[in-house]
Amino acid sequence: MYRWLLALFAALSLTGCGYNDFQRLDEESKAAWSEVLNQYQRRADLVPNIVATVKGESTFEQETLTKVVEARAKATSIQVTPETLNNPEAFKKFQAAQGELGSALSRLMAVSEAYPNLKSNQGFSDLRVQLEGTENRITVARNRYIKTVQEYNIKVRSLPTNLTAMVVGYKTKPEFAVENEAAISKPPMVDFNKK
Length: 195
Fold this sequence. Notes:
Number of helices: 8
Distance between the termini: 88 Å
CATH class of the domain at 20-144: Mainly Alpha
Helix content: over 70%
């Protein structure tokens, strides 16, 4: 009778330990991260086509194109593994590289507005629409990842599941952070007198 009660107590205590929830949330965060990577790769794949189209505009700013190409090279050179999700330094480095590529592409799109031939180029217009769609997909994928990481981290920090996390060695996962938070909190300067 004592063994039976001990087995029942062990079974009941294990149901609240959260181990299975950790497994589920870990897999969900990995899947969400894979979707983020998929969308970043889609963006990186668009860059050569955009650069090739813009190069056709002979007077286009070479410096802007160079920055886009360099940012793409840097962003695609970082090897991302599942362990990156658990390494805040590697995660931050990856985020920074993707942020640089996003900024370079934004600058390219802004500068392209000054080139009427480029604006009227149907190929460039199509690529621009694809890039905008990809940026939206990246935002959706990152939001999904942020949500799954938030659920996981709450589980790691909450009682009684934090005890399981300590025993098994689960640690909080890094979250997406905005690199230039101070800069984006300021309203943009708009000057309608510039040409």
